[in-house]
Amino acid sequence: MKLPPLTVPLPTPEEMRRWDEAAAEQFGIPTLLLMENAAQAALRELKRHVALRSETKILIFTGKGNNGGDGAALARLLYDEGCTVLVCALAAPAHIQGTAAQHTAIARGVGVNFLDASHDDGPELPLEWHAPHVIIDAIVGTGLQDNLRPKELAYVSLINQWREHAFVFSLDIPSGLCGLTGKARPEAVKAHATVCFEAGKPGLFFPEAAEYTGHVAVRRVGIPLAVRTMIAPSWELLAPEKGGWPRPSSFRHKGKAGKVLIIGGSEGMSGAPFLAALGSLRVGAGLVHVARPGALPCPGCFPEIMEHLVGTGTRWEEENSAELERITNMITPDAVVIGPGMGRTHAVQYLVKVLLEKTERAPIVIDADALYCFRSPRMEPTPGSAENSAAPLPLSLLGSADILTPHPGEMAGLMPVHSTAAGADHHSRILSVQNNRPGALAALTAACEAVLVLKGPGTLIGKKDAATILCPTAVPTLAVGGSGDVLAGMCGALAATGMASFDAAKLAVYLHARAGELLAQKSPLGHLARDIADTVPLAWNELCKRSV
Fold first, then answer.
1. Do the domain assignments include residue 460?
2. 288 Cβ contact list (under 8 Å, min separation 6)
3. Fewer Cβ atoms within 10 Å of its own Cβ: the N or the C terminal residue of the chain?
4. Does residue 127 fall inside a structural domain?
5. What is the enclosing helix (H) or strand (E) of 367?
6. Residues 95 and 170 in one domain
7. Domain boundary residue among 213, 238, 263?
8. Is 413 inside any structural domain?
9. Is 152 in the same domain as 279?
10. CB-based burial of residue 544 (10 Å sphere; 0-12 exposed, 13-18 middle, 19+ buried)?
């Protein structure tokens, strides 16, 4: 199934450096021109936020690298606009090299005022410049790997003190923010807006970076498409174009729109599989079936969902295997979702194993309790459930069409080789995952063939030998019980259409996140998981072309 683009490139700082080099060395595009294009793009973006006049006082802080060169080139353009401009240069001219030195020399030559701050221990500015209208941050760019030097940190602190009365505009990335992780090192400029050149960088879009970046705009500066294709980025941002998706055919048939079987439910968790079913229906599944223990009460009226009662108890048993196989053969689902509210017992592990070992089967979404069947041997049994001491299922049972949807707690148990010391408690392992979500994702995708969705603010989607996908959304409306069940059902429904599972996971995560954002526009709290499912059609509508 041919899809419109779901993502945009998100090169790491090192990949961006290679893009610049390839543009110059293989295609003859001068770096002087690329830096000029960056400055022109920054000027256009700044004008979107600030009305520039002759009395506008603009203070520009520059470092010794290419980020400082961008600042010097922008200073010249602002000077030509008639603004009052002062460049506070933290590096001596002798320490500025290459293209940055060229643009610095050009700016000086046309009359831009520079203040040499290279010998100061900290900020020392003329009194008349203690109240600028605009501050341009061009101290340190995306190449930052270590913590800011004391002098750089002092100027970053000054910028943050003055941001209450000045518009702070960062070039490429706020100084002090890591372009790969989105973490401050140890502090970063808190910009009102950031213009990022050619392509975004991962660190700009992690939710924790938002307090530093402000509004982020990505502006092309002239890197050829051939370079972007030749040096494919290892990260991508989940950002499908709104309005570019075709509407479903008028001749769409429910039997051809995807059949989903959801297996789950146990005593106290009877609603979970039905929330997954709602997610499937709301994302467009044609037919949705739920298989659940026969003695469980139905959590509500769901006439659109077809129920299959399995056994006579309130939890799953190993002998349910034959009945599940009969149901599966009867339905012939295009995708299966297993785990929501299913319980963490030997029987569940057995049923998951039987399902995965079938030679010909549909894609399977492994969610919630089914994920515990693969837990690491270091994972302690769930309190009060001695049955969880069984050896975990091997990750080799998973195929490339399967999808795992863990939250950080579930991820901590899935890790094949955990970074924390042996014997660390479960809370410490979760913190380990949260402190390095990309590393945890990479470790698990290297160990199995399945698509992995690591849920949470800034959800990550990964697959072996594929770019890591970052969803930048972080809204409290998604932090409710059952939200993950809805997402699992959505993943299953989209996979059931014949869409590649990696794409199905990307689209499901986007629509789920966008539904959360739309709900947040109504109220930050108080929504239910079913509200997320019910809002998915509105998110779909944004993606589809408007009817003429």
1. no
2. 259, 260, 262, 277, 280, 281, 304, 305, 306, 489, 493
3. C
4. yes
5. none
6. yes
7. 238
8. no
9. no
10. middle
Q: Quick one: pLDDT at residue 245?
A: 87
Do 206 and 260 fall into the same domain? no
Give the number of domains in the chain. 2
Helix (H) or strand (E) holding 307: strand 306-310
- Taking 70 as the pLDDT cut, the residues of the chain under it are 1, 122, 376-389, 416-424, 546-548
**Contacting residues for 292 by C-beta, under 8 A, at least 6 apart:** 263, 264, 265, 270, 273, 307, 308, 309, 310
Instruction: Quick: pLDDT tens for 199-214.
Output: 999 999 999 999 999 9
State pLDDT tens for residues 340-374: 999 999 999 999 999 999 989 999 999 999 999 99
Distances (CA, A) of 125 to 61, 115, 250, 297, 375: 11, 8, 67, 72, 58
Chain mean pLDDT for the chain: 93
Strand order across the beta sheet in which 215-219 lies: 113-116, 84-89, 57-62, 134-138, 167-171, 193-197, 215-219
What is the reported pTM? Answer: 0.94
Q: What is the pLDDT of residue 163?
A: 96
| Contacts of residue 548, Cβ cutoff 8 Å, sequence gap at least 6 | none
Residue 361 within any structural domain of the chain: yes
Q: Which residues contact 363 (CB under 8 A, 6 or more apart)?
A: 334, 335, 336, 399, 401, 402, 403, 492, 495, 496, 501, 504
Residues 262 and 221 in one domain: no
